[in-house]
Amino acid sequence: MAVGSKQPAGQAWEGKSKGSRAGYGIFIWILRRFGIRPAYLLLRFVAFYYFLSSWKTSRAVLQFYRLGLQMNKIRALRMLYRNYFRLGQTLIDKVAVMAGFAGGFQSQSKGLEHLQALAAGGKGGLLLSAHVGNWEIAGHFLQKLNVRINLVMFDGEHKKIKEYLAGITGPRAFNVIVIQPDNSHIYQLAAALARGELIGMHADRYLEGSKTLTLPFLGRPARFPEGPFLLAAKLRVPVTFVFAMKAGDMTYRFSATPPIQPEQIKNTAPEAVLQAYISEVENKVREYPDQWFNYFPFWS
User: Fold this and answer.
1) pTM of the entire structure?
2) Which of 8, 72, 131, 152 is deepest in the core (most CB within 10 A)?
3) Which residues contact 264 (CB under 8 A, 6 or more apart)?
4) CA angle 7-12-14, nearest 5°?
């Protein structure tokens, strides 16, 4: 398992995750020899370990459940354990699907026609999501759109773990654009859109020092990265909000909203697109509270 680490100076995320090569290796060994359900069984004990020992991340998630979703103490503690278990499941699922260790995964789609229209339009599009559900699984399944998918990510995973997983899962079904400190990744994004490709990125985390926008999230002021919403306005491409939520042990539920068109974005501030995005994220975390994977204090 891996959890996001907290930025000491505030709520911003460092872009790194905790985890070990040995930990990944044990689960991959079980997946290869016994399948996904025995891996889930072991995960129950691992999740309980994180539940007892990860005080910093646990406090942040409990704050989210207590203040954001208005849960009482008992329910929040139960949800905290479920949260760690769900996180582990999403990591196992990612490896299992991408490496072909386990079959039988099913997907339920709502709004897939919006993405198909973007792909057929040939002008590219921006797919915004959040650290809820399983983003990499979404990227793997979206290859059926017959258009190149580019996922924008922080390069925060430890190098040895990345190399180890790459050797197990093989090449990804999507292209990864790594966020660079000098913003040089912007040129890669523009080039991909010019080729009519789709770009997916999270829009709920920022690094310290980057520009942010502040709007209420679940009733409390929260900061979001300005970049994704400014990018939509400057590059004049359609924007849709995409999520892949785990709906059962072997089922994922995909959703995509009707695109906000460039002419609509042109006449509004980036905050207007952010407000629409926040509404969608709020809906998802209320429906799937155990799949909130921001392990740092989200509100100032």
Assistant:
1) 0.86
2) 152
3) none
4) 55
